[in-house]
Amino acid sequence: MTISNCSSGGFNGANNLKPEYFDAFAKYLTDVVDWYSKQGITFRSLEPFNEPLGHWGEKAVDAYISNQEVLTIECFDDEAKSYISQFNTHAYGGDQKSELLNISKLDDKKLWMSEVGLTVSRVPNDMSTSIILSEKILNDMRILKPNAWVYWQAQYDHDWGLIGTDFRNSTSQFNIRLAFYGYAQYTKFIRPEYRIIYSNDNDTLSAYHASSKTLVIVCTNKNNVSEVWSLDVSMFKVGKFTAFRTSSNNETLTELPKQWNITNGTLTHLSPAYSITTWVFSSTTIKNHSADGLETYL
């Protein structure tokens, strides 16, 4: 169906789907979704092309398109927008994240950060990838505020994978890299139906789940020295709390000893260099108002 006879891209950044196969390609996509539906698996959305305007050899084209992407969406008429259920974007770059967020809200569309991948360090106790990944999450949740944030390949046979394995060898062992645990500092605790809530610190992500009354705070120390952190949880009536950490000091989502107290609504702790710490507060209620009163992102 493609001009280049390859599904990964066209020549010189040009269109690659042959015009005579437009209808056949649409049928192919819907046939696949229909087959999965009959197996009991429902897809809420379908993306026909991955990075359709990206051609990594066409740098000038890339720069131009990235500046025009939001304008392109704004040019869609109401009929075109009616066929779109959500906007997907990738967090490799770009400087119009807030503009894309505003458009998604205006058009009442879901917004997903549907792919980002990093070259994952294979060096034991090297937190560099975990810190970079955490900074991307923090930045996107603060500016882009997507409904979902998705890592590209959790398991891969090259350096992109958080878990490394050789797909060509059936006896290959899984190599769980430190970045897997760095990512899990978020994904293990901030689950579907959690609401991202405001934090005035750029290295902190907070989330609250009203039904289970659980507050989660993820803190990233991206510096090469230990730091004293003070978490203001005074607007919450806090029950029990537990801390988990991934660091360069042989900690992999390690539950920490219970050695902290909350004094006058503030939890103070020492954050090691190059570490990610997640605090989980259970039986937590909001003082004087409901969860709807929180200043939330999602």
Automatic annotation (TrEMBL):
All copies of domain Endo-beta-1,6-galactanase-like, residue ranges: 12-62
One Gene Ontology molecular-function label: hydrolase activity, hydrolyzing O-glycosyl compounds
Top-rank taxon: Eukaryota
Classification via InterPro entries: 6GAL-like, 6GAL/EXGAL, GH, Glyco_hydro_b
One Pfam family of this chain: Glyco_hydr_30_2
Protein name: 10737_t:CDS:1
Organism: Racocetra fulgida
